[in-house]
Amino acid sequence: MDHLQIARTMFGTNMAVHIIFATIGVGLPMMMLTAELMYQKTKDLHYVVMAKRWTKALGVLLGVGIPTGTIAGVQLSLLWPGFMEVIGRVMALPFQIEIYAFFVEALFMSIYVYAAERIPPWARITSLAFVAFGAFSSAVLISNVHAFEGTPAGFRFENGEIVDVDPWAAFFNPSFLVTAGHTALTAYTTGAFVIAAVAAFKMLKNQYGTTEYKYHQKALNLGIVLGLIFSFLTALNGHATTQHLYYEQPEKLAAAEGLFETTDHAGLTLFGITDREEQRVKYGIEFPGLLSVLSGNSFDTVVTGLNDFPEEYWPPLYVHILFNAMVIIGTGLIALSLFSLIWHKWLKKETYPKWLLWLFVASGPLSIISIECGWIFACTGRQPWTIYRMLSTADSVTSAQNLGLLFTLFIIVYIVLFVAVVYTLLYYFRRNTVSDDIYRAEQKNGELFESNS
Amino acid sequence: MADALIAITIVWGFVFLYGIMATMDFGAGFWSMVYINHEQTNATKIANSYLSPTWEVTNTFIVGVVVAIYSLFPGAAYTIGTVLIVPGSLILLLLTIRSAFLVFSHSVEQYEKLLTYITGITGLIIPGLLISVLPITHLGVVEGERGSETLNLFQLFTNPNEYAFLGFGIFSTLLLSSLLLSDYAKQVDEPIAYKVYRRDAMITGPLAIVLAFMIMYTLKNEASWLYVRMMEDRTLLLLSLLLFVVAGVALYLPYFSKRDVKGMPRVAVIAVVTQYLIASYVYGKAHLPYMIYPNVTITSGFTDPTSFRAVFITYIVGFAILVPGFYYFWSIFMRDQRKKIKKKHISQS
Q: Which runs of E-coded beta strand occur in chain B?
C-alpha cells in the first residue's frame, strides 16, 4: 500500500469501528424514550425494565463509541491536515456545535441515570428526550460535514487561496438535509432492528408463555413497529438522496449503477459486478429504464455515464456492490417488518414462526452491514476528492511518513475493544437477567437504576 | 490582530480547563494504583469513585481543545497536525484504552484490578506526552517548509528543557490530584485517606516547584526569547509563587474541628489552581505571537474573519449552556457520591 492508501485505510478503519457504536448510540435512546412513553401509557413495568436495560447497554457501548469518536475528531487533523485547513476556515460550525450537543447528551444521561428514581416521570422523560436529542444532533452535525464534502458551498478558491467565505452557506449546503436525514433515519432503523434481533434471539431461547418470553415479545413488537416506520422513511429519503446525486455528483451515481454510456431510458442493474473492460455490469439483473425514472421521474431522463468524465475522476467501480447491498438490505427490512406487522395485527397470530424469528435475529447485524456499506459507498464514491471538485484526497493527506506502525497499533486496540465490549455485555446481562430486573422493579421501593449502575 | 487575540485566549482557556480537569483525572488514576494494596485506607476507593463519572466530561474538553485549534487557527492546525502525528496518535491510543476500561469495569468486577493498572500507568504517560507539546511549540524543533514540516525528535529529547517540562507535568499531575483527592476525602469523611493524600501533596508540591524553577533555568539557554518575555511579568510570577506558599500553609494549618484532621485542603486547591492560572497566563502571553516558534504565528494561522465571527457566537451561546449545565452536573455528582459513601459507612458500622 502506498502512503495515501495507508492513511485512507487507517481513517476508514476507525470510522468503520466508530460508526457501529455511533449508530446504535443514536438509535438506542430513541428506543429507550419509546419504552418510557409506553410505560406511561400502559403502566406495564416491563417497559421500565426495557428502558433500564437498554440504558445499561448504551452505557457500555458508549465506552467504545466516545473514545473512537475522539480518535476520529483528532485523527482528522493528524492524517488530513490539508482537508482540515479548509474545514477549519469554512466548515467549523458543525464541529463547534457538536461539542455542545455531545455535552447536552452526556449531561442529561447522567441526570437520567443518577436521578431517575428521584425525579417525577415527566422530568425523567424530559431528560431522556434531551439525551436522544443530543445524540441525534451530533449525528446530524457530523453528517453535515460529510454533506459539505460532496456538495461544497460557501467558499471559492482563488489562486490557491480560500476567498468569499460564508460559514452559514457552507453549513446549509445543498445536500445537508437529505444527507443528515439519511444518517438519522438509518440510525433509528438500526436501533430498532438491533433491539428486534436481540429480542427475537431471546424468544427462541425461552419457553413460550414465560415472563421472559412475554418481555422479549413486547420488545420485538416495539422493534417491528419502529423498524417499519423508520425503514420506510429511510427508503423515501434514500430516493431523494439518490436524486441529489443525479444532480450534484453524477459520476458517483454512474459508478453506483455501473453506467458507462450517457443515455435516456437508462436501466437499473441489481446485483452483478462492474467490468471496466467490457464497460457493463456482469451477472446482474437489469430493469430497463428504471434508473432514468428514479433519477428524474421519467423514462426520458438522460443519465450521464462514466465515459463522459475523465477516467481519473472515476470513483472505484466496486461501489456498485456496496450501493446494491445497502439498498437490498434496506428493502428487505421494510418487507420483513411489514410482513410481521400484518401477521400480528391483521392475521391476529399470537406467535411468530421460528423462521421469522431467525430472520429478525439476522436483521440486526444486516442493518449494521447496510450502514457500513452505505458509509463506504458514500466516502469511496466521492474519490478522488475529499471536497468534491475542490480538494483532492492526495492534497489533503499528511506529509508525515511511516504510518504503518501506528496503523498496526490502532488495529490492535480496536480488536481489544471489540473483544472487551462483547465480553462486558455478555457478562453483565448474564449476571443481571430480565427476571432479576423485573423482580426489582416490582418491589415498591426498588432502586432499579442505582442497584447496578 | 484583535480577533486573533480573542481567538488565542479561547484556545488558552480550553487548554487550561482541560489541563486542570485532566491532571486531576489522570492523577486520580495513578493514586488508585499506588494504594491498591492499602485497603484499610480506602485511598483507592476514593480515587476510583472520583475518577469514574468525570472522564466523559473531561473527554469533551480534549475534543474542545482540538476543535478550537482547528476552527480558530486552521493554518496552525496544519503544522500541528503534521508534526504531532506520532505523539498525538499515542495519546489517542492510551486514552481510548483507558476510557473504555473505565466504562467496562462498572459492569465486570474482574476488570477492576486491570483497570487500576491501566489508569495508573496511563495516568503518568498521558500527561507526560501532553505536556511535551509545549516544548515542541517553543524550542524550535519543527523543521522544514510548510507542507513538509517534521518534528526533530532527536533535538527534542536531547534538550534539557523538554525533561524539565516532562517532570513538571508529571509532578503537577500528582500534586493537583492529591490535593483534590484530599479535599474530596475530607468531604466524604475519610480521615485516613485524607491524611494519605495530604502527605502526598506535601511531597509532590515542593518537587513540582523545583521543576518549575528548572524550566525557567533551562529556558534561559534553550529558548531565551521566551525566557526574556516571561521575566517581563516577574511580579505575576512571584504572585504565583506566593500562592504556592499559601497552599503549603493551608495544608499545615491546624483545622479547628471535632474531627481528627488538620489542614484546609479546599484553600490549598484554590490557591494552587490560581497559581497555575497565573503562571500559564505568563507563559502564554510571552509565547505570543508565536503558536509554533518560529514557523507559525497567531496571525499567519488565523481563520477567515467571517468564520471567526460565526464560531465566536457559537462559543458564547455554547458556554451559556455549558457553564450552568456543568455546575448542575457537578452538584448532582458530589451529592450522589457523598450519599453513596455514607451509605457504605452505615452498612459497615
A: 142-143, 150-151, 290-292, 296-297
Neighbour count for residue B316 (Cβ, 10 Å):
8
Please judge whether A85 and B150 are an interchain contact, meaning their C-beta atoms are less than 8 angstroms apart.
no
User: B322: which chain A residues are within 8 Å (Cβ-Cβ)?
Assistant: 100, 103
List of chain B residues whose C-beta atoms are within 8 Å of the C-beta of residue A421: 100, 104
Nearest-CA neighbor of B105 among B44, B181, B179, B57?
Answer: B44
- Hey, how many other C-beta atoms are within 10 angstroms of the C-beta on A85? 25
User: Considering the domain boundaries, does residue A169 fall inside one?
Assistant: yes
Whether residue A230 contacts residue A185, with contact meaning beta carbons closer than 8 Å, is answered with: yes
Residue located via cell numbers 455554547: B318
- How far apart are the C-alpha atoms of B92 and A70, rounded to whole Å? 8
Q: Is A91 exposed, middle or buried (0-12, 13-18, 19+ CB in 10 A)?
A: buried
What's the length of chain A? 453
Q: Which of B107, B328, B337, B343 to mutate to test the interface with A (most CBs of A within 10 A)?
A: B107
Which residue shows C-alpha cell 480506602?
A: B42
Please indicate, yes or no, if residue A222 is contained in any of the structural domains.
Answer: yes
The amino acid sitting at B336 is: D
How far is Cα A219 from Cα A194, in angstroms, rounded to an integer?
11
Domain residues for the domain of A184 are 3-231+390-452
Is residue A314 included in any domain, yes or no?
Answer: no
Asked whether residue A361 is domain-assigned, the answer is no
- pLDDT, tens digit only, all 349 positions of chain B: 688 899 999 899 989 988 888 888 888 888 888 887 776 667 777 777 666 666 777 888 888 888 888 889 988 888 888 888 888 889 999 989 888 888 887 788 777 788 888 888 888 889 988 998 899 988 888 888 777 788 888 888 888 999 999 999 999 999 999 998 888 888 777 878 888 888 888 889 989 999 999 999 998 888 888 889 889 988 998 999 999 888 888 877 755 455 555 667 788 889 999 999 999 999 999 988 888 888 888 888 888 888 889 889 988 888 887 788 777 777 766 666 666 666 666 665 5
Q: Do A64 and B66 touch (CB under 8 A)?
A: no
Percent helix, strand and coil across chain A, each to the nearest 5: 75, 5, 20
Chain A residues with CB inside 8 Å of B328's CB? 107, 111
Cα–Cα distance, B53 to B333 (Å, whole number): 8
Residue A287 in 3-state DSSP?
Answer: strand
Q: Which cell numbers in the block locate residue A72?
A: 476520529
Residue type at position B8: I
Mean pLDDT across A59-77: 88
Q: Name which of B103, B145, B298, B334 to mutate to probe chain A: the one with the most chain A Cβ atoms within 10 A of its Cβ.
A: B103
Distance, in Å, from the CA atom of A143 to the CA atom of A145, rounded to the nearest integer, reads 5
Q: How many domains does chain A have?
A: 1
Interface contact A63-B100, CB threshold 8 A: yes
Radius of gyration of chain B (CA): 21
CA distance B92 to A417: 14
Q: Is B73 in Cβ contact with A107 (below 8 Å)?
A: no
* Type of residue found at A448: L
CB B96 within 8 A of CB A413: yes
> What is the reported pLDDT for A451?
38
pLDDT of residue A30: 94
Rounded Cα–Cα distance for residues B105 and B116 (Å):
10
- Minimal CA–CA distance to B7: which of A161, A171, A88, A85? A88
Residues 6+ apart with CB under 8 A from A147: A173, A175, A176, A178, A179, A180
